[in-house]
Amino acid sequence: MTDSNSLSDWQKQELASSLSRFPERKKTFTRHGGEEIQRLALPEEIDEEYERQLGFPGRYPFTRGVQPTMHRGRLWTMRQYAGFSTAAESNLRYRYLLEQGTTGLSVAFDLPTQIGYDSDDPMALGEVGKVGVAIDTLADMEVLFQEIPLGEISTSMTINSPAIVLLAMYIVVAEKQGVATDQLRGTIQNDVLKEYVARGTYIFPPRPSLRLITNIFQWCGTHAPLFNTISISGYHIREAGSTAAQEVGLTLANGITYVQTALDAGLELDQFARRLAFFFNASSNLLEEVAKFRAARRLWARIMKNRFEARNPASQMLRFHSQTAGSSLTAQQVDNNIVRVTIQALAAVLGGTQSLHTNSRDEALGLPTEDSVRTALRTQQIIAHESGIAETIDPLAGSYYIEQLTDQIELEAEELIATIEEAGGVVAAIENGLIQRRIEESAYQYQLEVEQGERVIVGVNKFQESAEERPPLHRVDPAVEDEQVGRLAAVRAGRDNVEVDRLLAELKMAAQSGEDNLMEPILAAVRAYASLGEICLVLREVFGEYRD
Amino acid sequence: MSTTTPHRVLIAKPGLDGHDRGAKFIARALRDHGFEVIYTGIRRSPEEIAAAAIQEDVAAIGLSSLSGAHLRLFPAVLTALKNQGAGDIPVLGGGVIPDEDIKTLLAAGLHAIFTPGTPAATIIEAFRAACQTGSHSDSDD
């Protein structure tokens, strides 16, 4: 295909089809003075190398973005991760965020919820409502989303090992609001593999965890086709100290594992692959991060096309959420964090993100205050509406540095994937500690460089100030734990306990079968107000628990 | 360093928080400075941590928590140590800990508390001092 041919082919197909369905945000985008801003800057000559490595947005290999008009068509979703204390308090924060112009919800659950313990479990001591909201039963979930129309917004839930239970609760709450399951939009994180190496909220061993994930892919493929069934996450791997290239390699290796497991279980690729989403870290090295996002997109497209023979472009696309790097925030001179977050958010947008969470300036000290959260959201709005970078597609393409670094990161990530496969795949590489060692080594080297002053962290190892004033902190009232335990006791007293026991016994049989999809029995148990801890206990008994 | 026997210390993660980048860094930095370090791994109960400290006969314990549960969990480890007859092992803590909580924790009997951005050298020195002052000190020269 000659130059002008491939360009006009893209214009006639992907671009025209996109414009006819979703017009751009403005009729024309102009600079001050009236000159039109180019939608997509291109090299003078479109040669084979350009087509192979970059191509056009919305077309394989998607290096320049997954949609033909990118942020000119629709801005990324401004999605602020939030949740703390009780469902009622978190509900108020969500409604506040929606009023302030956030465009999607992102639910943070507390650690007991994430690890499948009820609030009255001894293991939950001190953790209830701390890093997120405590959810024990459907009753809490009903309160969490009251007066929030689930048919109109999309909700992301950071839940992994017990994702199937929280998804079931969400579906039932929506039903009660009169919203059909096939209209629900949102994402569950549901990425257990990275929990074993980075984030730590695993419950079951890897193999039964993969079964639960595949059950979700299958059930949602039929009943909730708009819902993203997984968010394959490099974010936490990077936070644990990996390099940018390791973040890409390890995340895509996990992605390959999920796809292969689902195929092995007999699922059709195009039935589930289009609902795989990704989640990456946006760190401070701006150019490296932009190259990383582009490399991840291209490498995933190649894997899906070449290895799994995905024909549908939607199955080849790496769509991703991003969050600015929590570990880069400093407890010293907290206002500096606003600047860090701005640079990181710029990287995410220049890298073509589909949705973004910006951290708040005070998160190295504790949970963010409402003021800090607002500034974080305003940062995104300034980038969206004032910086101009959302008005043209992939503006850093063609920079020698960016293109070389994109190639380099893709190569390094591919090499890491190959190393893991030689070691027997991701599950084996987790079990023998290969992945953990790689991350730890990178984290240690980085921290040594900081300790030795080779890597400057402003306000921490250089330009320090003494006697700093600490900003006010948001604190979770310790009484929340007792309150939540009381609410759970009331639900247990008010429900049909014979029915709950019967449904839990049915769930146990289905889990023991090894074959059954567990979504339906869990939906039934959730409807009868069985608690998260009770459901997970049944699964713990059947599947066992993982311990590092 | 005047000791020939290395100090043995336990680095532990109480509660459900899985963020152990800091704990692992400190464990390795201590090792690089001549300590013998046992790391418990994440998600250990206060009782498990106390039992591990006694079994391994450590001279000091370092706790890490980033989830905001420190006010309950750090003193719970002290209590577990006392209940198991090892209340004299000095316990140091680190994590995302607000200033006013530091006072509370020190008053509760924590030996020292470190917050983000503390240089590793400061923490290593504090462990060395804790190991030498504690009656569980294993440096016999």
Structural description of this entry:
The complex is a heterodimer of chains A (548) and B (141). Chain A is an alpha/beta fold and 548 residues long. Chain A has a domain at 70-451: Alpha-Beta Barrel (TIM Barrel). In chain A, 51% of the residues lie in helices and 7% in strands. In chain A, helix 4 (87-99) runs parallel beside helix 6, helix 13 (286-307) crosses helix 17 (400-422) and helix 21 packs parallel to helix 23 (532-543). The mean pLDDT of chain A is 95. The longest helix of chain B is centred in the middle third of the chain and has 14 residues, at 70-83. In chain B, helix 2 packs across helix 3. Helices cover 43% and strands 16% of the residues of chain B. The model of chain B is unreliable at 137-141 (pLDDT under 50). Chain B has one domain (8-133): Cobalamin-binding domain (Rossmann fold). At the A-B interface, helix 5, helix 8 and helix 19 of A face helix 1 and helix 3 of B.
Summary keywords:
heterodimer, A: 548 residues, alpha/beta, 9-stranded parallel sheet, 23 helices, B: 141 residues, Rossmann fold, 5-stranded parallel sheet, 5 helices, 43% helix
Topology:
The complex is a heterodimer of chains A (548) and B (141).
Chain A: H1 3-21, H2 48-53, H3 70-73, E1 77-82, H4 87-99, E2 104-108, H5 111-114, H6 138-144, E3 154-158, H7 163-177, E4 185-188, H8 193-199, H9 206-223, E5 227-228, E6 230-233, H10 235-239, H11 244-264, H12 269-272, E7 276-282, H13 286-307, H14 313-316, E8 320-324, H15 336-350, E9 355-357, H16 370-385, H17 400-422, H18 426-431, H19 434-451, H20 479-494, H21 497-513, H22 519-527, H23 532-543
Parallel strand pairs in A: 1-2, 1-9, 2-3, 3-4, 4-5, 6-7, 7-8, 8-9
Helix pairs in contact in A: 4-6, 7-22, 11-13, 11-17, 13-15, 13-17, 15-16, 21-22, 21-23
Chain B: E1 8-12, H1 21-32, E2 36-39, H2 46-55, E3 60-65, H3 70-83, E4 91-95, H4 99-108, E5 112-114, H5 120-133
Parallel strand pairs in B: 1-2, 1-3, 3-4, 4-5
Helix pairs in contact in B: 2-3
